[in-house]
Known about the structure:
The protein is an all-beta fold. It has two domains: 9-138 and 166-290 and 319-435, no CATH class; 457-508, LysM domain (Membrane-bound Lytic Murein Transglycosylase D, Chain A, Roll). The chain has helices at 471-478, 482-488, and strands at 5-30, 38-56, 59-74, 81-94, 103-119, 122-147, 155-182, 192-208, 211-225, 231-245, 254-268, 275-302, 305-334, 339-357, 360-375, 380-394, 400-406, 412-416, 419-449, 460-463, 502-505. The model has no long low-confidence stretch (mean pLDDT 92).
Amino acid sequence: MELELERDTIKGYRTVAEVTLCQEETLESIVPDACPDILRIVDVYGQATLSGKQAREDLAVVNGMVRVAILYQPEGGSGLRRMEMGLPFTCQAEAPGLTDQGAVVACPRLRGAEARALNPRKVLLRVDLAVDVTACQPEERALCSGVADPQEHGICQQKWEGEDYQLCTVQEKPFTFTDQVRLQSNSGEAPQLLASRVQPQCNESKVIGTKLIFKGAVELDLLLQEPGGGLTAGHETLPFSQIVEVAGAGEGADSQVLVEVSGYRCEILPGDGRDLEVTVELLGQALVRCHRPVTLLQDLYSTACLTDVESRPRELCRLLEQSVRPQVVRELVESGEMIRSVVDSRLALGQVRQSREGGELVLTADVALTVLYLDENELPQCLQKSLPVSCRLECPEGGRCTCFCLSPGEVFATPAAGGVEARFTVEFHCLTTARQTVPAVESAQLGEARTATAGERPSVVLRLATPGEGLWEIAKAYGTTTEQILQANELEEGDLPTGRMLLIPSVR
């Protein structure tokens, strides 16, 4: 006869893919007729935007667009000119087990962009992309928590009490906001907007009831050109706040919100040419995790009947650490010439690699630093340097770390002997978890009554506990209960005494 078991159903998400896809894209383009011929290319400002993402059968697909502004010195002219280009991209990540019911979280980043003039009217653009992709599949797990009516057949149960740190909700919210910025100028005339880039960051998120509230800011960087040809950089912080529904997460859940740019535009408003209207289209992607209490039936037997139990291991997750680890970097970028002044400096963050050294994980982010400066002849020049930035994290063998990087604040760069000294901060946002395997009962069958073989065994047994043997194992082997063994030997709950004969009463 099959025993009726009580089961709890856990609903959540299973991560089926978590990868960083790196790829290059190239595009040739003709200089528009309205633009003068190219003498030399000075710098390339780029922005990767997220156009869409799809969950397919065993595949996560991400689409986006790289928008660039190529800044160049024209033939026979002064100052800088700009040429805009757009380059679409598509990448795919293998995600075994993913279906169209799954969710994809994507974060594209532009690791670098460069342009080369093939001739005065033709440009070759190359961009280097890194796209973080996480694919999650909804799932339901039925876990056995106990026997429906244990008294009926004298059922003894061994249970495991703990918790599962699970991804319970994956939600997203697109939103748009518009703000105005007053352009500053060193002269009486309005400056020209040469290039712009936006970097959104979520600074705070919290689950209250069924709502997830997240706040942050878009860091707007501008490159301006004065009427006389001088270059200046501007920086603005544009705050935002949003609410998204996350039913089923519960109070105290841990939330991680990744905000990506899906589009933006900057337009000079009519008037004196100093008011800039900035419209940013954003996508907030929320992953919410919670600590769910779990009771698992690990083993059972009947004192009345012989029992056949089928078990299989269950994998649960526990949180080890959730932290933000800022790394302050000071770096000298050599130029080989005298630098009169620094106009602008910026960072691009690439892939985060992991390696192990003993009980620690070494997290290393690829960072590309770009500095726009004026040389001793007051000509704009560009310096670039790639460097690794690392931090260490304690993590036991078998532990798993999910990490992404941000660069909060501005990059400070000043002329120094031999080049430019740059100072900036890279934050490593780390989530470290570990898997634990717990044996669990799947089904149980009751066989013939123990009284059928009662005459073949004594009613009382004397024996020593073998090393590593517990009270449960002894009681199960003789079809009695742990309480009766403790009572017969006048013992309290705890470890069995070593070297002592135990009186094992049988149940009749």
